[in-house]
Amino acid sequence: MATPSPPSDPLRCLVTGATGYIGGRLVPELLSRGHQVRCLARSPHKLTDLPWSGEAEIVRGDVTDPESLGPALRGIDVAYYLVHSMTSGTDFERADRRAARTFAAEARAAGVRRIVYLGGLVPTDIPVRELSPHLRSRTEVGRILLDSGVPTTVLRAAVVIGSGSASFEMLRYLTERLPVMVTPSWVGTRVQPIAVRDVLRYLVGSATMPDDVNRTFDIGGPDLLTYREMMIRYASVAGLPRRLIVSVPMLTPRLSSQWIGLVTPVPASLARPLAESLRYEVVCSEHDIKRYVPDRPESPIPFDRALDLALRRVRDAQVTTRWSSASLPGAPSDPLPTDPGWAGGSLYTDRRSRTVDASPDALWRVIEGVGGENGWYSFPLAWAVRGWFDRLVGGVGLRRGRRDAERLRVGDALDFWRVEEIERGRLLRLRAEMRLPGLAWLEMAADRDGDGRTRYRQRALFHPRGLAGQVYWWSVAPFHAVVFGGMARNIARTAEKAAGTLGPEGPSRAGAQADASITWRSARKPRRM
């Protein structure tokens, strides 16, 4: 998007959900317009590696915690509420309600001038009580914020089209992978998609609405399409042959989500609320937003143009945020067993180390490139089976891939891992987000030993929960020599090959020197790598 001149009177903005797909893109948009931005995050370290982190204030806090939320809202003009519960459990509506009420009360107490909330577009001919739980919850959150006593803008959008959005990736993978598909009946339901650039434009523009505006606005692009038409038009824009689509009535939202989870990287837990929302005809009933955020000659962006822009970003590896940027609901949040505050307990550790006949920089490039299309450098079938099993039990599996093919940053999703820490050029730590009876980490490091030789060090840690965790560890332990040992060996070989030091006979003499150990202990404060 073109960068406009900054306003004469910059605003102080608080952005919640900055680790998510929309929030991560909104922050630099606000900064480019000269606004001051404060980000509220439960895990501030996830934002420290972002390009704009040095320009924004990052504070620790949670929208359900008044003690952290109050100080974060102090001195703020405009507060963006961009958090949602995307779980399928029975308590998410209660959690959303509690968070919205807390945020509303603290914003009013702090003297915030405006709240801006991005919710979901809902049908006008269906009572709220009959909506899907997730759409019903979005509507309730909007109502709570509108009744807060703080002037509030509630933007309601349907399908958001942009590189990395869950809706776009669902559309993309379904269309690209299935030239012939049997689909749920909701492919015939009309929706009004909107380009992510227009969503951001409306969010930024909402900050300067007059104080007497307190209402909802429907936002959408210029096209009204069925999901079938969206898939056909995607195939055309992407240069694919025309798709044959046959809809059947018996696929429930639950079955639809399993079908989506099987074909696309979007897990069933996230696919279900998306599928539920697509059951309804969701089109804008008004376009009053243009009174306060005027349309431009090039906007709202047509659907085909939005697809083209998103595909270019994907092909050029310029996806700034993805649907997987947001923390996975239910993912482990306990401290690493090397953290000072760790409470101790059983800890299993698999250590591998190899001398590498290449520079630390060459080795680091291989380490930072793991996962995604490059895979995990050992026993691909074992990794694939683990990913399939994870999908079967409701996990994310291996299909999330990477946001960027070459460079990682803290908070990135990486297949069924999450990047927890990076010491650029030296250490990469991943936290497991697959379904496990315990907590797991994988660390990879590049440095030099006492003789100045490059050394690759790898450590897998598992902190079991109960008997199931113990059984899990010992059931997979026999495969560690193949999986983790092969991983260390092949990462070293790949670095040597890239450096031109791997001869035709195989590993160099240095690379053949390796050691490994598998340990168990009741750990208190293990040393860092």
Give me the secondary-structure topology.
Blueprint: E1 12-16, H1 21-32, E2 36-41, E3 57-60, H2 66-73, E4 78-81, H3 92-110, E5 114-120, H4 133-146, E6 152-157, E7 160-161, H5 166-177, E8 180-184, E9 190-191, E10 194-195, H6 196-206, E11 215-218, E12 225-226, H7 227-237, E13 244-248, H8 253-263, H9 268-277, H10 303-315, E14 345-356, H11 360-368, H12 380-392, E15 413-414, E16 417-423, E17 427-432, E18 438-448, E19 454-464, H13 466-476, H14 480-499, E20 514-523
Parallel strand pairs: 1-2, 1-4, 2-3, 4-5, 5-6, 6-11, 7-10, 8-13
Antiparallel strand pairs: 9-12, 14-19, 14-20, 15-16, 16-17, 17-18, 18-19
Q: How would you describe the overall organization of this protein?
A:
This protein is of the alpha/beta class and 529 residues long. The chain has helices at residues 21-32, 66-73, 92-110, 133-146, 166-177, 196-206, 227-237, 253-263, 268-277, 303-315, 360-368, 380-392, 466-476, 480-499, and strands spanning 12-16, 36-41, 57-60, 78-81, 114-120, 152-157, 160-161, 180-184, 190-191, 194-195, 215-218, 225-226, 244-248, 345-356, 413-414, 417-423, 427-432, 438-448, 454-464, 514-523. It is globular, with a radius of gyration of 24 Å. It has two domains: 12-159 and 185-223 and 266-301, NAD(P)-binding Rossmann-like Domain (Rossmann fold); 345-523, Alpha-D-Glucose-1,6-Bisphosphate, Chain A, domain 4. It has a seven-stranded parallel sheet with strand order 3-2-1-4-5-6-11, sandwiched between helices. The longest helix has 20 residues, at 480-499.
